[in-house]
Amino acid sequence: MSELIPVCTDEQLSETELAAIDAEIAHVPYRASVAIDALKIVQAQRGWVSDDALQAIARHLKMSAEELDGIATFYNLIFRRPVGDKVILLCDSISCWIKGCDGLTQGVTDLLGVGPGETTPDKAYTLLPITCLGACDKAPVMMVGEELYENVDEQTLHALFGKGQA
Amino acid sequence: MNLDRPLTRNVRPDRSPTDLHSYESNGGYQSLRGAIGKSSPADCLQIIKDSNLRGRGGAGFPTGMKWSFVPMENVSNASNPDGHKYLICNADEMEPGTFKDRLLMECDPHQLIEGMILAAYTLQADVAYIFIRAEYYKATQRLREAIEDCKRKGYLGQNILGSGFDLTMHVHVSAGRYICGEETALISALEGKRANPRAKPPFPQVSGLWGRPTIVNNVETLCNVHHIIERGADWFQSLGKTKDSGTKLYGVSGRVKNPGCWELPMGTTVREILEEYAGGMEDGYQLRGFLPGGGSTDFLTTEHLDLAMDYDTIGKAGSRMGTGTMIILDDKTCPVGFVKNLIEFFARESCGFCTPCRDGLPWSAQVLDDIESGRGKAEDMDTLARQVQFIGAIGNTHCALAPGAMEPLQSAMKYFPDDFTRHIDGGACPYCDRENR
């Protein structure tokens, strides 16, 4: 038996979450069809999707928690562990690699003390690699939260993450 | 109005969005007003067929032919009591080195929506989705605003402009993964499942989203539709310099003076795009090769500079035009490292369903990592050649991810064999002490 997901919890979804999920259910033929939307709705409210929250969603969609977890863990932008207030998505695809994104990853690590997949102790940032962000003419690029940064260099990183900035 | 550059006529230098008012004052929604309820869906389909519009997502499949497989009789049955048909816009732009659909959606959201309404009318689809990647916040927001404006104006919803045609449009924001750009994987994702591609047949045109007739088209493809319906197939054909019609959003990234994205006549030569628009190579860098249209296309080299960038010409040269956005390999960037980056990308993005892709790509990445870090052996080249043969074969996998991944690898081995050998013989990357790595 897997102990990853507890058998039963009484975690409840909020009114806001339920209303948003039900609005999605209204235009699809099966409740489970909104699985990804529901995960995103809950993540938007809570920052990530805990085991308890996952179970609550699964109950609402009348699907098994195991199936929903299979979906949740497939998608790289559904977070099954807590992330920082802002997620840094540093593009590591080809055009950004040509322009030296490896050095930028190291630069973020030097400034914030976290490697890819890690969250700063003050929970401000999580650093994640990301597939091509579709701004290759401005490579290297990264996102911090919802903001896209283009032609990123050491100065950009210092301005964002240097001492006294964050 | 700029008739030579229809797709980017509303793109402003500061890339601010074109709102409904300015879109309409530049002729927007005239195509919709002229066609909907006045021309028959069959007439619209014939224009698209005659125009020779080919899919701009990378495969280049003729759009009119794709649409013609959608059943036009009443499709209601026990499993589809409402008779739904779906149109999906694939806005999941994630092919490495591709940055064209972002421009179209951020700068001119109504152009896409008008194209989608006319595409849906042609197919008699009653529900449309824009499947967009989560990182495109700005585009998502602008499309959602544009859809609301259209509902208020009567361009979307019930009985559009009194034609009796109904269309509901939704924006679905994805949760990541490159594989969602594959059309059957996209359909799985839209159904709320893991984005595993599906075996074909059945094709989505007959059995797609929730088992109902579905068309999936790329953003740039759909942006062309209302221009073609308004101005006709002959006009569209006349835009292209070669047999392929229309214009194309070409892009260049890498070490060039002026990386960017430009709408040019289909069939513009590689040299013209590279030298006149991208400004040539950065000072101190020489061109060694390029991927013509994204990370999953074969390398071409300096001998191919005078080729026309269209589907057939680039295909005959042994590559694919793909998305039309070139990635440049310069003389100070390691070709082995370049390919390793791509293969690691494809290995990471495999959905894990088919064995050659799930297990083969990480193996290729491992071999390339060995070579790049100086641990390579002479027999590694044979291993890579065998991998290209097995992983690259069409038909060993449900979708084209793994075969696509092998394209830059096989062509790098063909055009830059000495670079591989120098790594293996020298026990180190010969580029590593240079500024670029």
Can you offer a commentary on this structure?
The complex is a heterodimer of chains A (166) and B (437). With 166 residues, chain A is α+β, with helices and mostly antiparallel strands. Chain A folds into two domains: 2-74, Arc Repressor Mutant, subunit A (Orthogonal Bundle), CATH 1.10.10; 86-161, 3-Layer(aba) Sandwich (Glutaredoxin), CATH 3.40.30. In chain A, 40% of the residues lie in helices and 11% in strands. Chain A has seven helices and four strands; from the N terminus they run ααααβααβββα. Chain A is elongated and about 50 Å long. Chain B is α/β, with parallel strands linked by helices and 437 residues long. Chain B is built from 17 helices and nine strands. Chain B has helices at residues 20-25, 30-35, 41-51, 63-68, 101-107, 109-123, 137-153, 183-190, 219-231, 233-239, 270-277, 311-316, 335-349, 355-372, 380-391, 401-415, 417-426; strands spanning 86-91, 127-132, 168-173, 214-218, 247-253, 260-265, 287-291, 300-301, 325-330. In chain B, strands 6-5-9-7-8 form a five-stranded mixed beta sheet, sandwiched between helices. Chain B has a four-stranded parallel beta sheet with strand order 3-2-1-4, with helices on both faces. Chain B is globular. The termini of chain B are far apart. The relative contact order of chain B is 0.12. The mean pLDDT of chain B is 95. At the A-B interface, α2 and α5 of A face β3, β5, β9 and α13 of B.
